[in-house]
């Protein structure tokens, strides 16, 4: 599955199509907040469309789903 994802990402990058890039910094404990940053762009430029801290996984998923919807996205997680 990851290989498929890599090929899809490379194809989108080569074609220069717009997509979302989502960065997630997970908290070490449920007592702490996690960070989310969402950028939209292509291989030449990107702009920040959202950033925030969240306390629950549900809140994190809701924010990502609301911003990205069903568009292509590359998601990186720092755990």
List keywords for this structure.
alpha+beta, 79 residues, elongated, 2 helices
Provide an overview of this structure:
The chain has 79 residues and is α+β, with helices and mostly antiparallel strands. It is elongated, with a radius of gyration of 13 Å. Strand 2 (34-41) and strand 3 form a beta hairpin. The chain contains two helices and four strands. The model has no long low-confidence stretch (mean pLDDT 85). The protein has a four-stranded mixed beta sheet with strand order 3-2-1-4, covered by helices on one side.
- Poorly predicted segments: none
**How many whole angstroms does the radius of gyration measure?**
13 Å
Q: In order across it, which strands form the biggest sheet?
A: 3-2-1-4
Measured as a percent range, the helix fraction is 25-40%
- What is the straight-line distance between the termini? 20 Å
Could you tell me the number of beta strands?
Answer: 4
**What is the element string, with H for helices and E for strands?**
HEEEHE
Say what oligomer this is. single chain
Q: What's the shape? A: elongated
Q: Total helix count?
A: 2
Largest sheet: 4 strands, mixed
Q: What's the rounded overall pLDDT mean?
A: 85
Short description:
The protein is an alpha+beta fold and 79 residues long.
Task: Reconstruct the topology from this structure.
Layout: H1 2-15, E1 19-25, E2 34-41, E3 46-54, H2 57-68, E4 73-78
Parallel strand pairs: 1-4
Antiparallel strand pairs: 1-2, 2-3
């Amino acid at each position: 599955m990851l290989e498929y994802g890599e090929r899809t990402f490379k194809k989108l990058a080569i074609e220069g199509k717009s997509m979302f890039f989502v960065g997630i910094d997970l908290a070490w404990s449920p007592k702490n907040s996690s960070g989310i940053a969402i950028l939209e762009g292509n291989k030449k430029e990107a702009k920040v469309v959202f950033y925030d801290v969240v306390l629950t996984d549900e809140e994190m998923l809701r924010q990502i789903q609301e911003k990205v919807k069903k568009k292509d996205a590359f998601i990186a997680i720092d755990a």
